[in-house]
Amino acid sequence: MNYTKMHGAGNGFVLLDNTSSDLSEDACRALAVKLCAYESLDGLIAIVPASDADIGMLFINSDGSVGEMCGNGARCLAKYAVEHGLASDPENIRIKTDAGLVTAKRISGEVYEVRLNDPSVLDPHRHVLLGGQDCDCFYVELGDPGIPHAVVFTETDPHLCTDALRETGRALRHAAEFPRGANVSFVQKTGPDSAKAVTYERGVEDFTLACGTGCGAIACAFAVLSAASPSRITIGMPGGMLQVSLINENGNIRDIRLTGPAVTLGEGETASIS
């Protein structure tokens, strides 16, 4: 079976066309572990049939666990769908995910926008005790069931990705205060509507070059916690820049839109991997 390699701001994926349902979910999970290790990528996207959307998205992390959705992956899938005739309207690409329906559109050849799922849980101050120290996290779940995210603001450059920061990310990711675990984003404000960030991701169990839903969670934190409450922010992640816009009506966050690159890296064949 052929597969396509893509990335969104450095967040790398394997895409498999499984619209004929030849592969079971268990088979896709096994392939995710093998292919992501072989290609040094973060996850596998199996394209599956969807009766009420253009395509369905089964997202599997590099460790074989199934994720609810992936923002950068959804942009890559939208580009793949347009270029392979799986979506008839590049202005309205409908993707069914485990977190709910996601819509996307093409901005240009390698830039796509995806509307992330609205928050189902939003807790501006979820406190976690780490080594006797209180860690104040902005907690949000995007979608239902939601993708869990914890946002932690820091004064230091998170792109340095020190061993200490990695250990903190790992501890928070497994903290009891997050029953389903959490993707943990460390964020440094660089302006009223800009930031630098890095995310320790569930399923990868390390920092990635970018996290799309993590950027959505960061934008929610800016909108709720910042006096300026910006409706659009630019976030620099190690793999590139992502933009997020949203609507904030008295703390009710909706219409979160993530814009950034979707790049095809090449193709491979599963038969060539032992």
The total count of helices amounts to 4
Oligomer: single chain
Domain module tally: 2
Write down how many β-strands occur, each being a DSSP E stretch of 2 or more residues.
18
Radius of gyration: 18 Å
| Portion in helices | 10-25%
CATH architecture of the largest domain: Roll
SS-based class: alpha+beta
CATH homology-level superfamily of the largest domain: Diaminopimelate Epimerase, Chain A, domain 1
Shape verdict:
globular
Note poorly predicted spans.
none
Largest sheet: 18 strands, mixed
CATH topology of the largest domain: Diaminopimelate Epimerase, Chain A, domain 1
> In CATH, what is the class of the largest domain?
Alpha Beta
Mean pLDDT: 95
The first-to-last residue Cα distance is 13 Å
Order of helices and strands: EEHEEEHEEEEEEHEEEHEEEE
What does the model show?
The chain is built from four helices and 18 strands. It is of the alpha+beta class and 274 residues long. The protein has two domains: 2-115 and 262-272, Diaminopimelate Epimerase, Chain A, domain 1 (Roll), CATH 3.10.310.10; 119-258, Diaminopimelate Epimerase, Chain A, domain 1 (Roll), CATH 3.10.310. It has an 18-stranded mixed sheet that branches. A hairpin with a 4-residue loop joins strand 4 and strand 5 (66-67). The protein starts with a strand and ends in a 5-residue tail after the last strand.
